[in-house]
Amino acid sequence: MSKLKVLMFGWEFPPYKSGGLGTACYGLTKALAKQHCEVTFVMPVTPEGATAKFVKLIGAANIAKNVKIKTINSPLKAYMTSTSYEEQYHVWGNKNKKQVYGKDLYQEVQRYAQIAKHLAKTEPHDVIHAHDWMTYQAGINAKKISKKPLVVHLHATEFDRTADHPDGRISHIEWQGLKEADKIITNSNFCKQNIIKHYKIPAEKIEVVHWGIDDTPVTNYVPNKKDKTILFLGRVTVQKGPDYFVEVAKKVLQYEPKTKFVIVGDGDMLPKIINKTAELEITDKVIFTGALSGDDVHKAFQTADLYVMPSVSEPFGLVALESLKNGTPVLISKQSGVSEVLNNALKADFWDINEMTNKIVSVLKHDALREELKEKGTKEVQKCNLDEPARKIMEVYKKLK
Amino acid sequence: MTNICLYFQVHQPFRLAKYTLFDIGKHARYFDEQKNKEIMQKIARKCYLPTNHIIKELIHKHPDFKAAYSISGTALEQFEKYAPNVLKSFKELANTGKIEFLTETSHHSLSALQDKKEFTEQVRQHQKLIKEHFGQKPKIFRNTELIYNNEIAKQAQELGFKAILAEGWEGALGWRSPNYVYQAKDSKIKLFLKNYKLSDDIAFRFSNKQWNQWPLTADKYAGWIAPIMGDTVNLFMDYETFGEHQWQDTGIFNFLKHLPQELKKHNISFHNPSELLKITPKEELDIPNAISWADLERDTSAWLGNKMQQAAHTQVYNLKKDVLATGDKELIEKWRKLTTSDHFYYMCTKYFSDGDVHKYFNPYETPYECFITYMNVLQDIADKVKTEPGLFASIKKYIKI
Closest approach of chain B CAs to the CA of A300, in angstroms? Predict the structure, then answer.
């Protein structure tokens, strides 16, 4: 049996990644390779300097054999380095900064889409797979040329990213992609419902594939700390609910005054959140680290007694799995995709400050609760790898082929 | 050929209301009256009333028909409060002279494993209840969830019981058959063992269409019992099997209705537990570690297997001394209701990720929610008894002067 060939359009790939999507595409292609699937991964990076490094990394992860890397000559990299791609979205949505990125990003998306036509002729494929709105036009163009089925993958809607204040141009592109697709893959039922609600797409066209986490083990650190700590880790933006986190901190401190709260991350709401801690008179209890990367992220998780994800709208929430992988129990908002997957986690509505306080105080007071959540959660997260999602996506391909 | 001994367990716990950190010190409405009432009335309608009716008919129709019951004190209290007609129909059954009542702990607790004095107290309370309601003084003891070991047998003997029930599990029996009477180690008390295969054919497998013996009919079942060698076949099960665990449309009621006449065709009759007392025990059984009728493990891990369960169970008994010292009858009764084994069953995490029966019977979303609520209730009680004895002491001092 010949291998199924996929022409995949992405926006980033390690080490040229800055946020969730790069990691997701890396994990997915690696897992798809195990399923005897041949992926040609297309991404808009300049070839000079990037390619060699990039291919080398793929080789190191032992998937180069089954994944061919195609790069498109484009200056887009200049705009997308260092800050996370999701953060770029936020900047994008932020009216003051729009002119800086606006025009050029659209030009890049269009140029990328044009080159896709050419690739659809030269690269043999059975299925086209496009990740998030920047690549949808490319996917649509490729389909027009090769007449092969198009899968669009939605990792987050524009509505999730902006807490229901979408940029009309982006949501339009998103809608076009969803409409033209033969099948839509999304990461949670929560996200599926959002697609149905905002874009009126029929439910049967959408396949939910719960996301998993790469199973490479993390290094263990011995945390050096005196007081118990509660962690927030993520972009400090309206989507992630940092304002709820500090409100909860204030309440928890009334019961457990020795607790420390750590906020890891950067974002447009950071000044507001810092001011709020001052207003609530808890500045001596809240530590801001800014954005962390690499091993520092693992250290942050492992130092914490509980990770809290009070997201207002979280299409999946991979970071909760990351926390459990580091052995730190989680309290996650019910408005998240990951809450559909995890059993051994505490859950609350993001707006329910009292319930979050109730649960956090209980974790602080009862070691038995924390240890049980840690033990069972760590075990559960081992099952949340990427093999199952890859298997489900293969099924989607096979049905379309 | 042998006779059969039917024994049914009737139990309902007082489930807790949602009790958060913010309720501590504010009020003591720990139990969810509404939910407990609804569940009791639903089960009364689906199980207790129709099954009692069938049993009554069988007693009239078949002079040799007999059955034994153990009804927990918490179930009796709920009958009085929420379903007095159920209590009335049990009394009518008692009046036929064909029904034997067994003793258990009044609050269906795990006190036998934790606190001898409290165990004795709860056994005495239950004996009193059975005397009051049904005019019987039981000779046979049945511990919560058939939890049994040498030590518990000894305690039961000290309390004056002639026999005790246990799970006839091969893990404890070895090659021995459960269909004989045994004797507890270093003790005079007799041991009646549940034939769990035949019991579970009715209690668990009856409606399972994947089972190769489905559908189970009364004549087929009688045919299985007929060739059995031994003194007795002990069929022990939850009474809720009839109409609640196995719904009416599975044919469970018809099965029960027809069982005695089918057994009669094979000359099989019924005897009650106290009639087994005259049988000479085969040999002494040494069961040092606690066994039970729960889960595949048949141990106490369903209630005390994880850290939360152990912490919660230890803590509730830690409070005993101070609670009893208050002399506050209402508070003491509330505390006893917290010793009911179901609370700890709801905290079980062993199969939680796989979503099994524990989840099905659990009123909480997760075992962690149960622990948090339970510990908040204990906190409220702890705060009360810690302040109140001080108050009592000062009054005493005042009186002395």
Answer: 24
Residues B329 and B188 in one domain: no
Q: Dihedral angle at the C-alpha atoms of B123, B322, B388, B394, nearest 10 degrees? A: 110
Residue B250 located in a structural domain: yes
pLDDT for A53:
31
Longest dimension (CA), chain B: 79
Is B145 one of the annotated active-site residues of the chain? yes
Assign A11 a pLDDT band (cuts: 50, 70, 90). Answer: confident
* A314-365 confidence digits (pLDDT tens): 999 999 999 999 999 999 999 999 999 999 999 999 999 999 999 999 999 9
Residue with tokens 């010793």, as numbered in its chain = B339
Q: How far is CA B209 from CA B212, B213, B224, in A?
A: 8, 8, 19
Over residues B327-360, the pLDDT tens digits come to 999 999 999 999 999 999 999 998 765 545 555 5
* B110/chain A closest Cα distance in angstroms: 20
Q: Is A4-211+386-400 a domain of CATH 3.40.50.2000?
A: yes
Residue B1 pLDDT grade (very low, low, confident, very high; cuts 50, 70, 90) = low
Residues B15 and B53 in one domain: yes
**What's the whole-number mean pLDDT along residues A68-93?**
40
User: Which residues of chain B lie closer than 8 angstroms to A375, CB-CB?
Assistant: 307
Q: Which of B307, B313, B373 to mutate to test the interface with A (most CBs of A within 10 A)?
A: B307
List where CATH 3.40.50.2000 sits in chain A.
4-211+386-400, 229-383
Does residue B180 belong to any structural domain of this protein? yes
Complex ipTM, two decimals?
0.90
Residues B107, B38, single domain; the answer is yes
* Closest listed residue to residue A391, CA positions, set A37, A105, A73, A51: A37
The H-assigned helical ranges of A270-330 are 270-279, 295-303, 318-325
Segments forming the whole domain that contains residue B125: 3-285
**A338 Cβ under 8 Å from any chain B Cβ:** no
Please tell me the distance in Å from A318's CA to the nearest CA on chain B. Answer: 19
Report pLDDT digits (tens) over A371-380: 999 999 999 9
Can you tell me the distance from the alpha carbon of B269 to that of B249, in angstroms, rounded to the nearest whole number? 28
Evaluate whether residue B190 is within a structural domain: yes
The tokens describing B37, both together, are: 């009432």
pTM: 0.88
Query: The tokens of A359 are what?
Result: 């649960």
Of B21, B310, B311, the CB nearest to A255: B21
B242 with B376, same domain: the answer is: no
Q: What are phi and psi of A297, to 5 degrees?
A: -65, -45
Q: What class is the A229-383 domain?
A: alpha beta
A400 pLDDT higher than 50: yes
Each residue of B168-182: pLDDT tens digit? 999 999 999 999 999
Q: Which strands form A183-186's sheet, in the order they lie side by side?
A: A67-71, A37-43, A4-9, A127-131, A150-154, A183-186, A206-208
Q: Does residue A195 contact residue A186 with C-beta atoms inside 8 Å?
A: yes
